[in-house]
């Protein structure tokens, strides 16, 4: 204006420190083995529920309370212990905003899900990463050694992504006991493929909180729906940090149908588990190194040609996720497990891609 140059206002210092996360989206046509989603579809009963939503209902603000009661009953918890969120990402964000302030510390075993570090870096707290032990085993002793009075949040993905490794119940109990001043988040996004949980500790141990998602086994990633479970006292404070309307009406309308169709979820999980067994046997046959997984994905080590391999798979219509930039994951590619039929197709693409890049196995 009038020749005067203006500059946009500066963001607060924390924003400049936030770790950026850029998911490799874009064209995702083909076999989606890159984001650990349900690779086929949600329950048909969910689609029926969406079809029953009237135009008038979309004019109303969403009401999460009745659905939280339903989810609480499913999890065998009190309604006051359950908070529905806009995906597990919002659950992590709420937890960090509630418990991390200046002078506080968050402990994070790595490699792991990227959004823990993103949301922790948006606070005034200090993020301390604890590298995994050999073969990505959970670094229990190293983590316990890092606990101080400043530790206020400890995030544990169980099973972990991108490694598929798990943490024992005994280890989680030991951590919770060693850090009574800290919230211990156990992220059970891949619970259905592992089958073990610490959800029963919610309310019994005041510093344990558990997260679940509808994005994986239920196939509702596009609706963004997560669950945060914690003791009533803790939940009271976390509810202050979330918008009452962050979970949309379409997502809320699907919960009842998704939870009720246990037959569909059981079928999909059993299909993935069978496909995982088949796929890892094929990796053994092709002499591709990998780590045993308790989730719906497998982390492989391709070596220096990981980028070429990912492109070769993409050119054959199979999307995989290059995880080489994760701590300690140089040369690694994560591959989601779909149905048995899908994984048979992926093995064909895998063998052809390895041949194309001249992979002999020695590179890994």
What is this entry, summarized?
By secondary structure, the protein is an alpha/beta fold. The protein has helices at 13-17, 44-51, 65-75, 87-99, 115-121, 140-146, 169-178, 191-194, 232-239, 249-260, 262-285, 306-315, 340-356; strands at 31-32, 82-85, 105-110, 126-131, 151-157, 183-187, 208-213, 226-229, 290-291, 297-301, 318-319, 321-322, 332-336.
Describe the structure.
- The protein is an alpha/beta fold and 364 residues long.
- Helices cover 37% and strands 15% of the residues.
- The chain has two domains: 13-39 and 263-356, Aspartate Aminotransferase, domain 1 (Alpha-Beta Complex); 52-260, Aspartate Aminotransferase, domain 2, CATH 3.40.640.
- The chain has helices spanning 13-17, 44-51, 65-75, 87-99, 115-121, 140-146, 169-178, 191-194, 232-239, 249-260, 262-285, 306-315, 340-356; strands at residues 31-32, 82-85, 105-110, 126-131, 151-157, 183-187, 208-213, 226-229, 290-291, 297-301, 318-319, 321-322, 332-336.
- The protein has a seven-stranded mixed beta sheet with strand order 2-8-7-6-5-3-4, with helices on both faces. Strands 9-10-13-12 form a four-stranded antiparallel beta sheet, with helices on one face.
- Helix 7 (169-178) links the parallel strand 5 (151-157) and strand 6 (183-187).
């Amino acid at each position: 204006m009038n020749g005067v140059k203006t500059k946009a206002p500066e963001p607060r210092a924390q924003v400049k420190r936030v770790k950026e996360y850029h998911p490799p989206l874009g064209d995702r046509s083909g076999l989606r083995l890159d984001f650990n989603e349900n690779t086929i579809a949600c329950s048909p009963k969910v689609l029926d529920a969406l079809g029953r939503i009237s135009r008038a209902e979309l004019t109303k603000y969403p009401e999460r309370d009745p659905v939280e009661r339903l989810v609480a009953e499913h999890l065998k918890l009190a309604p006051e212990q359950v908070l529905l969120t806009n995906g597990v990402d919002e659950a992590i964000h709420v937890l960090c905003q509630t418990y991390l302030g200046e002078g506080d510390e968050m402990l994070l075993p790595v490699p792991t899900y990227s959004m823990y570090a993103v949301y922790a870096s948006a606070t005034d707290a200090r993020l301390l990463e604890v590298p995994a032990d050999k073969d990505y085993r959970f670094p229990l002793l190293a983590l316990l050694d890092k606990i101080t009075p400043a530790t206020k949040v400890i995030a544990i993905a169980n099973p972990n992504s991108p490694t598929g490794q798990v943490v024992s119940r005994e280890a989680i109990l030991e951590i919770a006991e060693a850090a009574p001043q800290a919230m211990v988040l156990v992220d059970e996004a891949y619970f259905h493929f592992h089958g073990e949980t610490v959800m029963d500790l919610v309310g019994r141990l005041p510093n344990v909180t558990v997260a679940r998602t509808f994005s994986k086994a239920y196939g509702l990633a596009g609706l963004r729906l997560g669950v945060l479970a914690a003791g009533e006292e803790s939940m009271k404070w976390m509810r202050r940090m979330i918008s009452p309307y962050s979970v949309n009406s379409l997502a809320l309308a699907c919960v009842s149908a998704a939870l009720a169709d246990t037959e569909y979820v059981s079928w999909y999980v059993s299909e993935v588990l069978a496909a995982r067994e088949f796929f890892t046997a094929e990796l053994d046959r092709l002499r591709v190194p990998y780590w045993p997984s308790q989730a719906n994905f497998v982390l492989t080590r391709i070596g220096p040609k990981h980028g070429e391999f990912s492109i070769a798979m993409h050119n054959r219509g199979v999307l995989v996720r290059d995880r080489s930039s994760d701590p300690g994951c140089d040369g690694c590619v994560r591959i989601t497990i779909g149905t048995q039929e899908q994984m048979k197709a992926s093995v064909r693409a895998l063998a052809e891609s390895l041949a194309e890049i001249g992979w002999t196995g020695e590179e890994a």
